[in-house]
Design brief:
75% helix, TPR_rpt, thylakoid, elongated, 8 helices, Photosystem I assembly protein Ycf3
């Protein structure tokens, strides 16, 4: 059953109606349809800042969804919630699981890099230069992959890679 949205706008309503129509038309199993409903409800709850409800829906979707590509997006969204709550270790775990299923998920690559960059800044502020360098190198590794796959995106990351001399693979 679709979740009632508090912030119904035209785009959200249109997406919901179209998704319902597509689900009725496509020859999909009951489990696939249920997984999509949970996923959509999770996205709706997440957009409203209802993270606990969103996680519940994503975990239900994950239990039902068999397609690796679709599972990667569920895992990615779970990672987003953990990252937004400052739980970076858990976020990294879910982003990495998403990448295992979909290694072209540039958003996950970027978000992993952002977390490592943040950790590098924190270490630098505490004068832990070895840890800072290590975290920045990890950030560079993931940003290089993201930029390679999506060269027109992540402009700030591209600039950071250039200015820090970390674009070793010359993807940029």
């Amino acid at each position: 059953m679709p979740r009632l949205q508090k912030n119904d706008n035209f785009i959200d309503k249109t997406f919901t109606v179209l998704a319902d129509i597509v689900l009725k038309i496509l020859p999909t199993s009951k489990e696939e349809k249920q997984a999509f409903y949970y996923y959509r409800n999770g996205m709706s709850a997440q957009a409203e800042g209802e993270y606990a409800e969103a996680l519940e829906n994503y975990y239900e979707a994950l239990a039902l969804e068999e397609d690796p590509y679709d599972r990667s997006y569920i895992l990615y969204n779970i990672g987003l919630i953990y990252a937004s709550n400052g739980e970076h270790i858990q976020a990294l775990e879910y982003y990495h699981q998403a990448l295992e299923l979909n290694n072209k998920l540039t958003q996950a690559l970027n978000n992993i890099a952002v977390i490592y960059h943040y950790q590098g800044l924190k270490a630098a502020n505490k004068n832990n230069l070895d840890i800072s360098k290590s975290m920045f190198d990890k950030a560079a590794e993931y940003w290089q992959q993201a930029v390679y796959l999506a060269p027109n995106n992540y402009i700030e990351a591209q600039n950071w890679l250039k200015t820090t001399g970390r674009n070793k693979n010359n993807f940029i």
